[in-house]
Amino acid sequence: MHLPDGVLSLPVAAVTSVIGAAGFATGLYHLRDRSRDRTPVLMGMMAAFVFAAQMLNFPVFPGVSGHLMGGVLSAVVLGPWAGACVIASVLCVQALLFADGGLTALGANFVNMGLLGSVVGYAIFAELRRLLGGGIQGTLVGAMLAAWVAVLISAGACALELAWSNPGIAWLPLLGWMLLIHAAIGVGEALITGLILRSILAARPDLIPGACHAVPSSNQIGRFALAGMGLALALALFAAPFAYDAPDGLETVVEKVGIDYSDASEPGSETQEIQPTKAPMPDYQLPIPGLSSMRMATAAAGVVGTLIVCGVAVLLARATAGSHRLPRPSVPIEAGSHGR
Amino acid sequence: MGDETQISAERRLDPRWALLGCLGFVVAVILTPLGAWKALGSEALLLAFFVGYLGVNLGSLARRWLGLCPLLVVLAVLLGISHPARAGEHAAGFIAAILARNGVALVAVLALGLVYSAVTLIQTLRRLGCPALVVSTLHFMNRYSHVLVEERNRMLIASRARSFGRKRSLWARWSMLGNLLGALFLRAMERGERVHTAMVSRGWDGTIRSLADSEQTR
Q1: Where in the sequence is the domain holding A113, given as residue range(s)?
Q2: Counting C-beta atoms within 10 Å of the first and last residue's C-beta, which end of chain A has fewer, N or C?
């Protein structure tokens, strides 16, 4: 997902750089009082950790592997803006020293992975944790779901930037494919985030601000269901653009795959009149069931992914909370003074 | 690569100019319209001059460039195919143009990373006005990423030694990876806390100083 140089057109690169710089300045403003405590050290350590962890690929499914992106993880541990700055540092080092991600695309990459991945991801996490009643379970489930959604949002933004810089490109299939592929990668990101957080919560829950304050909640399962429903709804809204112009994007996919859509290539006016009566729902009449509708596929991927992440998160949370009592931190945590 | 190359390169061209020049060069390359081969050729010549002038190790430059090439090809082919205006017989030329343009930009950035050390580039960012918090984060990251990568490799070897290279199920691999990364994370954070305590006891006030800084500002 690291965009290289030359893929984005200059206006897009300029606009995303301005947005990225503004977001970065906001982050620095939020962190202005914390350059003398241990925040910069922990941020550097977190950046080094993300950097080291990104070289370990995990199997998503045979043939495709992903790696940790770490936006939500670092935001959960250090706070949203510090998390975004960690991502900015990682991107900076990767672009300058390894040419992984372009110099002119640095702004776009920071918007996608830092601002959307970390700050927006943290907002989702905080809301979910509040809904789930806080504590170890709420932290774990909230972070995993947020990690999954954040990957999808970043991928969507990436696709839109690509589409905007290449006018005339078939942007709907591009968005659809990006979301489909990243739905799988996002499940991997959520799993790895959850597994790392499980280790942290079991050994040092004081490292994660807010994890020790369990808000008593009467009906845990109801809250899980509520959060899942809300997320599914949000996803449906997120996938809603597919409803517009769906046949358009569809045709392009079909062309790409190489199926002769209209057997008799008649003049446009005639086909336009005939088709609606002949095929009221052309989406469902294509020979390949898997490609029949990008919208359906993406929505299905969204629902399935949400269910998988939700289920694994609940299982992990049960296991973690069951094996471990909530410890009280003896030392006040200075790194935990973020949040507003 | 090596310290001598880096020191002589720093003497030949101030890293500030190199960094800004590299950014300007990449922007210029991207602004070059696709298919303007003469303009791209002269830009490539300019780049070749600086690569020779700064004494970039051509072998490692080529190795890294080739390592990043597959990604470039995939992107160029994707863009070339899905572009409706350039579909058909022009697709090959379009893909070649994208490849050439991105390849030149890539060489420039790779050469920058090869000629100047990470510490030099981070100090250059500081001298160009990058905020102190970011610079210190970058310093810590640069310092400890090597430590953490080695630690991670030791943990991988240890886990392999314990399991005698047994084939694992998918879930076992996942949970092993998760536990490994979790342990690595805890070690990183605890090291960070120790380092911070040690630095505070030595009078750290939030800025990172180095001998090179005082030499350059003189």
Answers
A1: 10-238+293-323
A2: C
Residue A15 covered by a domain = yes
Are B177 and A192 within 8 A, CB to CB? yes
pLDDT over threshold 60, residue B16: yes
Residue B7 in contact with partner chain A when CB distance is under 8 A: no
Cβ atoms of B112 and B21 closer than 8 Å: no
ipTM for the predicted complex comes to 0.83
DSSP category for residue A61:
E
- Cα separation, A266 vs A102, in Å, equals 46
Upper half-sphere CA count for residue A270 (Cβ side, 13 Å):
5
Q: Pick the closest to residue A301 from A179, A144, A171 (CA basis).
A: A179
The b/e string for A210-221 (b: 16+ C-beta within 10 A; e otherwise) is: bbbebeeeeebe
Q: Are residues A163 and A139 in contact, defined by beta-carbon separation less than 8 angstroms?
A: no
pTM of this structure: 0.77
A102 to chain B: which residues are within 8 Å by CB?
26, 105, 109
* Per-residue model confidence as pLDDT tens digits over A17-52: 999 999 999 998 988 877 777 888 899 999 999 988
Answer whether A45 sits within 8 Å of B191, measured CB to CB: yes
- Residue B115 CA to its chain's centroid (Å): 12
Which residue in A77, A64, A184 sits closest to A139, CA to CA? Answer: A77
A267 is a domain residue: no
CATH number, position A39: 1.10.1760.20
pLDDT digits (tens, 9 = 90+) for A219-250: 555 566 566 656 665 665 555 444 444 433 33
